[in-house]
Amino acid sequence: LNSCEVFIATYTENNHQLWADYHLGKITKEFLRAERFSKTFIQLGIHPDSVPHQFEDDYVNISPTKTNLFDGAENVLAYLQQKYTLHIISNGFKETTLTKMDLSGLNPYFTNVIISEDVGVNKPNPVIFEYALDKAKALKEESIMIGDSLEADIYGALGFGMEAIFFNPLKKEKPEDVKKQIAHLEELLSLF
Fold first, then answer.
1. Which among 14, 4, 8 is positioned nearest to 35, based on CA atoms?
2. Could you write out the DSSP letters of every residue in the chain?
3. What does the pLDDT look like over 125-178, one tens digit per residue?
4. What is the rounded CA–CA span in Å between residue 75 and residue 20?
């Protein structure tokens, strides 16, 4: 392996594809965890058996402690919390999501944290949106999904009949059927 950049690029591509499959219910959490590094090492010509088995576990334990927030996140959440009840719907792994929420200091801003593992389906499945609204005692006509995954968050919400705002910090090309988009969280201040 000649550079960490090659490893990161290969891993990122594999991880994104596996997460897309996970969102759609094509693979399990266990398969995703087992494959993301194994597949990466194989593509880079490294036999996965030569990598310590603890590698994935260490990654899962360390990654949630890296809680860098987007610029303005806490200010935007404090502003929105004064006007609205905020909730999270996450396809992330339960233990990772709860650790990230706790260590990032974001828990006080959210009334409910809905995790797909607890519901039994992932976004974009409409069942998780229905579950979240029921738990929030909210109507979809009065709710808005803000998310960074076109497939899971935006198309999931729109398909369910809920308004959605695409958070697109990487400024990827926006499909024509996605009406609302922001690149910076502070843009929400002028929308609400």
1. 14
2. ---HHHHHHHHHHHHHHHHHHHHTTSS-HHHHHHHHHHHHHHHTT--GGGS-THHHHHHHHHGGG--PPPTTHHHHHHHHHHHS--EEEE-S-HHHHHHHHHHHT-GGG-SEEEEHHHHTS-TTSHHHHHHHHHHHT--GGG-EEEES-IIIIIIHHHHHT-EEEEE-TT-PPPPTT---EESSTTHHHHH-
3. 999 999 999 999 999 999 999 999 999 999 999 999 999 999 999 998 889 899
4. 30
Q: 127, 119 in Cβ contact below 8 A?
A: yes
Maximal C-alpha separation, the chain: 53
CA dist 144 and 113 (Å) reads: 15
Q: Please list the residue range(s) of the chain that carry CATH number 3.40.50.1000.
A: 73-191
Say which CATH topology domain 73-191 has.
Rossmann fold (3.40.50)
CA dist 78 → 93, 107, 109 (Å): 26, 12, 7
Q: Which two tokens stand for residue 130?
A: 């229905």
Q: What is the pTM of this model?
A: 0.83
What pLDDT digit, counting tens, does each position of 51-84 carry? 877 888 888 888 888 888 999 999 999 999 999 9
